[in-house]
Amino acid sequence: MPWLTPVLEHFGQALDQGRLPHASLVTGERGVGKRQLAERIAALLVCDRRAPGMRAPCGECRQCQLRAGESHPDIRLYQPEKSRMIRIDQVRSLSQFAVASPQVAGVKVAIVHRADQLNINAANALLKTLEEPASDVVLLLLQESGRPVLPTIRSRCRILPVATPPAEEATAWLATELNASEGAPDPERQALALYLAGGAPRLAMELLESGFLDQRDAALDAFRQFMKGAITVAMTARAFRDLGHEATLNLMEGWANDLARVMAGGLARDPGIAEVVRYLAQSNPPWRAQQLVDAIRDSRRALVNNVNPELETDRLLIQWRSLMPGRRRSAG
Ligand SMILES: [Zn+2]
To answer: What is its EC number (predicted)?
Structure first.
């Protein structure tokens, strides 16, 4: 992932000069490779043969072998489990790990994947570790763009931003990764995945490999039928359920933005929705697109408060269909 090189270089220089921060906050879009970066840094930190100028672990020493077996006792990863949040007992375990002596390496590395998903008690517990760091522990906190991290935590970290690579670089990387295996999706499909991933290459790969794109096709197909009045809200919502609510909202937000774009004389980015939005753009004033975008944002906020996601999907679908000519009165 060549776009990680500048951040790695920045970190490596700090390491070479003995100004390594105790805690770093790696920020960037979802699926841009923050975890891979943190794992690479951790690997470099524990490597026995680390020398100035090295930006990759040797791959041969005992530490590197342990790490390759994914059982290095001095590297720990903490991430949200079923609750979608990092719980206080996970942070307590991190705090114990931070003060204990390293078992086999000269340093311990704790990676907190999704430091933006700490509940308030967990965040406060982590703050204690950040305030009094042991000298032989390095904390790598990862933050997804747009998801806040407590300012008290943020202020104790050095910020390492990972930029989303330019489209050409992302496209080239994705093609190289995918074409190495048989049955690679065609370039059009790869471009769509990259678009749906907001340009983040790792996420695009995940979408392709997890079958997400096929589920999205099914939802899109149901949506088109629904807009024509061929199937019910309930049937349509069912097609979206497999995607999950967050992905449903992302998809619909993309479509609403495409509608706004077409209304302003531009082109839809999602080719699957182009025909529908062209039709809607002819018969609706521009503020209707903004209204949809707002409704989707409201729904996203409501998600935090444990609303019923299916009811939210129904509500949004009904709002979409109210844009169809002749449907306004009955659906509005
Ligand atoms: Zn090594």
So the answer is: 2.7.7.7
